Amino acid sequence: MGLRIEPVGDVLARARRGEQAAFTQLVEIHHEQMVRVAYLVCGDAELARDAAQAAWIKAWQGLPGLRNAERLRPWLLTIAVNEARQISRSRRRRPVVQIDSVVVEPSSAGPSPDRVDLIAALANLSAADRSLLALRYVAGIETEAIARATGRSASGTRTRLSRLLAKLREEVRDA
Amino acid sequence: MHDTRNLTPFERRLARELGDHVASVNDPRPAAEIAATAMRARRSPLARLAWPGGSPMAVPVPIRLALVAALVGAALYLGLLVAGGHPTLPVTRNGAVAFPAPDAATGHSAITLVQATGGTSTVKTDPATDASCPAWSPGGSRLAWVETSEDRTESRIVVADGDGGHPRTITTHRVAESGGVGGGAAIHALSWSPDGQSIAYVSGPALWVVPSAGGEARVAVPVVWAGSSAAWSPDSRRLAAVGVLPDRGFGVETVAPDGSDPKILARVGKPDPGGYAWSPDGRMIAYAYGDLIWLVDSTGAADPFVATPEASTSLTPFWSPDSKTLAYVDGVRNGDALETASIWLKRMDRPPIPGNLFTPHVAGIGAGLANLTWSPDGMWLLVVGHKDNTYSVVRVPVTGGPFEPVATFEAQTPTAAIEDCPVAWQDNGIQPVP
């Protein structure tokens, strides 16, 4: 009980001191979303889990350098998408995103054609673009926070996101 | 579900559908197992040396202080050794190499110097900031770099002596001043004017110019392509950039350093253009666009033409110091990453005959080949590559043969300092004997 009641800053401070229980709490809180953003980047659930695990290794090593609890979530999720990109690169004998294997849950009305188009359009994006989409629209991280976590300028990130949206909109319209 | 109130309808739809798409993906393992696996993972030798207990906070204070003192002492010793202990004079004009690398003592990036004689040292930078983008003045007598606060709301350019001594801040940008819509203070892409009087740089959406001795920074191009860096004409009177035009297209343009007299040399549309470089002899501007490298006369007297018709995917071009050779990275694109990336050299003073292209050997250093740096004598190219979190700075002989390692270091993910700025190579001014 109470895993999410303790202020994240306190949990982070304890994790930075090397407390395994606190680090486990961070995993409890963030792992699921890390797997999901990683999945959007690499398109493979198994690889996404590997990426998230690899991200925790780096997070454990990098926690001492993180002083601001507000940055924890963007930081962790950025590591996860970066790991997903690296794993995608290293195992790129097959397409990065297995769009053909996208499972659209059956429903009485069937899948929305628009939705299939939008998800299929991901295949035409780079892993970096999918990372940006994952951080912004799956994790809901503000553009400024993404820029901070990725070490890039906010305006550049905003511009890139805007072009990316325009491209997606165009592709969905053309489909 | 995150707050979607500020999103456009299309963004809300995107958030909803992407959320649905990933919703079923999870990891059945308990959190304790995931955490324990992470904590057990073998760490890099450098990290183990710095933080033997797993986390620096877990190491008793006296031991930490002793470790830090030992590391600082070693750095100082190396610095003294290089600076005064063994005054071995370099025998070519290729001086020291500078690049940003993580500093275990501060947790931030610092500027590392690798001397031509092989010694290494760390430039004294503000330990509370990330130092990046080192750039030597022409002649190598001064070194500039960027220091950016941890929250990235403040970024400044520091100019020091060639060895990093006597640093002084020449300009500071804060979020509100950067000209961005609500952010983007981080300065990057420093470029000294050939006369050493000015430094051009990018902050927010704009290309700026500031006197290298300090003074008022002025906007040269209000909105530039996100990946821009300045390219100076040899007489320091013009700057080239890829700017965003009033119709929102892109244009390769030149402009006076104070922003006056803009001249559009080439209009480019989609896809976005890439990097560009002004030839040291001032005649041509090379730029990447549509997976090819184009050349345009710097006066705008002739139409642009393709310089690399044989290329499949070409990134930013880099001119050799004598303006005779273009170096660029080419490979098979997969998204925005290159597979089978290679460095290519193309002589621009010879007809396009077989043998004009030359591929130096660069295999085995992993990804990250986008930025190249010519040595001042034009005989080497510096390349940064990485495999996982191990970064390697290597120099590649342009005459062929295997590359030589310059430095290797570990960097935590995410790290942008080394990837966003090219490595700098000091020109020590020694001219070859005729």
Topology:
The complex is a heterodimer of chains A (175) and B (434).
Chain A: H1 8-16, H2 20-42, H3 45-62, H4 72-90, H5 113-121, H6 127-138, H7 143-150, H8 154-174
Helix pairs in contact in A: 1-2, 2-3, 2-4, 2-6, 3-4, 4-6, 7-8
Chain B: H1 9-22, H2 31-40, H3 45-50, H4 61-85, E1 94-102, E2 109-114, E3 120-122, E4 129-136, E5 142-149, E6 154-161, E7 168-174, E8 187-192, E9 198-203, E10 206-211, E11 218-221, E12 231-232, E13 239-244, E14 250-255, E15 263-268, E16 276-278, E17 284-289, E18 292-297, E19 305-306, E20 318-319, E21 325-334, E22 337-347, E23 357-358, E24 372-374, E25 380-387, E26 390-397, E27 404-410, H5 417-420, E28 424-427
Antiparallel strand pairs in B: 1-2, 1-28, 2-3, 4-5, 5-6, 6-7, 8-9, 9-10, 10-11, 12-13, 13-14, 14-15, 16-17, 17-18, 18-19, 20-21, 21-22, 22-23, 24-25, 25-26, 26-27
Structure description:
The complex is a heterodimer of chains A (175) and B (434). Chain A has 175 residues and is mainly alpha-helical. Chain A starts with 7 loop residues before the first helix and ends with a helix. Chain A is 68% helix and 0% strand. Chain A has helices spanning 8-16, 20-42, 45-62, 72-90, 113-121, 127-138, 143-150, 154-174. The model of chain A is unreliable at 1-5 and 92-113 (pLDDT under 50). Chain A is globular. Chain A has a single domain (8-174), classed as Orthogonal Bundle (Rna Polymerase Sigma Factor, Chain: A). Chain B has 434 residues and is mostly beta strands. Chain B has a domain at 47-76. A 4-stranded antiparallel beta sheet of chain B has the order 3-2-1-28. In chain B, strands 4-5-6-7 form a 4-stranded antiparallel beta sheet. Chain B is globular. Chain B starts with 8 loop residues before the first helix and ends in a 7-residue tail after the last strand.
